[in-house]
Amino acid sequence: MRIAIANSKGGVAKTTSSIYIASVIVSRGGRAVVYDADPQSSASLWAAAAEQTADPLTFDVLPANQATLRQLAAGADPDEWAIIDAPPQGPTLDMAIKAADFVIVPASDSPMDLQQAWSTLDMARMSTPAALLLVKAERNTKAFRDTMDALNAMDTPRFDTIVPKAQSYKRSLGTNPHQLGEYRDLVTELQQIAGKQE
Ligand SMILES: Nc1ncnc2c1ncn2[C@@H]1O[C@H](COP(=O)(O)OP(=O)(O)OP(=O)(O)O)[C@@H](O)[C@H]1O
Ligand SMILES: [Mg+2]
């Protein structure tokens, strides 16, 4: 299963989600690779920081350019989960979406940010199944309720899993995460999607 994590909006937990999803897959006995296709290299920096500790990441984070992604699009190891941390725009984003079997569009619970999430989602869905993942959510706020209302009104395809705003996610930057939290439920949803796509 090849998954691209994409949103042209920055700071919506694309890299965090990539690292956590791969961590959950490995914790369940699967094989995962994160393809770092973002020129900011945040996923690679995360892996390098964890490598400096006694507790490194449990999977490889590989740099990926258009050629890497084209190769991934042409054929993938069916037993390996490829997680692509996509750049915000440009031909590498297009290639990441084409290479993926499924696209996750993370978005925060701010109605203002939904426009960019919807445009990324619409763009992705021209070639690849995709759904929105609500991240950094603060359930007891008006912003959260307004966001949910807007998603429901637009019939936006989304994951049932909602990732809350939490210090444990923020603090895990550059470490091998052990409290995998809501991302375990997300991977369960992804495994169901993978089962249906086979
Ligand atoms: N669930 C969460 N709760 C609180 N903070 C979070 C959560 N997920 C991510 N963060 C924090 O939000 C910030 C942005 O996350 P991240 O770098 O994963 O986003 P990104 O979409 O990859 O950003 P960029 O556009 O720079 O690539 C980071 O400081 C991260 O630690
Ligand atoms: Mg990032």
TrEMBL record:
<dbReference type="InterPro" id="IPR002586">
    <property type="entry name" value="CobQ/CobB/MinD/ParA_Nub-bd_dom"/>
</dbReference>
<dbReference type="Pfam" id="PF01656">
    <property type="entry name" value="CbiA"/>
</dbReference>
<dbReference type="GO" id="GO:0016787">
    <property type="term" value="F:hydrolase activity"/>
</dbReference>
<dbReference type="InterPro" id="IPR050678">
    <property type="entry name" value="DNA_Partitioning_ATPase"/>
</dbReference>
<protein>
    <submittedName>
        <fullName>Sporulation initiation inhibitor protein Soj</fullName>
        <ecNumber>3.6.-.-</ecNumber>
    </submittedName>
</protein>
<dbReference type="InterPro" id="IPR027417">
    <property type="entry name" value="P-loop_NTPase"/>
</dbReference>
<feature type="domain" description="CobQ/CobB/MinD/ParA nucleotide binding">
    <location>
        <begin position="3"/>
        <end position="172"/>
    </location>
</feature>
<keyword id="KW-0378">Hydrolase</keyword>
